[in-house]
């Protein structure tokens, strides 16, 4: 968790094969899962969010040591940062018109 803007954007490019300037939010978590960094490109520069928990850990859904990376939706990302359990959440069926 010592990397800053340049180090994390380098990880995105070289290790994950992604584009750090795509506008996506890239989440990095430490081994103890009590610290998380979010790297986000906002058109003119990077924004880096850093959160440390005093108690408990962050929960990642379906992540194994060989996964490399996973894709989360907006709702899952917000729940992860707020400390809510993602595994036990059920999404309710909603009406979608046939177009």
Strand content: 15-25%
Number of strands: 3
Strands of the widest sheet, in order across it, are 1-2-3
Rg is: 15 Å
Order of helices and strands: HEEEH
Sheet of most strands: 3 strands, antiparallel
Distance, first to last CA:
47 Å
Work out the helix count. 2
Number of domains: 1
Question: Which shape, going by the Cα principal axes?
Answer: globular
Runs in which pLDDT lies below 50 for 5 or more consecutive residues are: none
**Broad structural category:** alpha+beta
Helix content: 10-25%
Mean pLDDT: 85
Structure description:
The chain is of the alpha+beta class. It has one domain (5-82). It contains two helices and three strands. The chain has helices at 5-14, 74-82; strands at residues 25-29, 35-41, 46-52. A three-stranded antiparallel β-sheet has the order 1-2-3, with helices on one face. Strand 1 (25-29) and strand 2 form a beta hairpin. The chain is globular, with a radius of gyration of 15 Å. The model has no long low-confidence stretch (mean pLDDT 85).
């Amino acid at each position: 968790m010592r990397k800053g803007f340049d180090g994390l954007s380098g990880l995105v490019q070289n290790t994950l094969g992604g584009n750090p300037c795509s506008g996506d939010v890239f989440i990095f978590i430490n081994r103890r899962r009590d610290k998380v960094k979010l790297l986000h490109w906002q058109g003119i520069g990077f924004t880096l969010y850093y959160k440390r928990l005093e108690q408990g850990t962050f929960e990642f859904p379906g992540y194994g040591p060989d996964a490399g990376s996973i894709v989360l939706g907006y709702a899952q990302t917000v729940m992860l940062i707020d400390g809510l359990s993602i595994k036990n959440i059920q999404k309710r069926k909603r009406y979608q018109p046939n177009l």
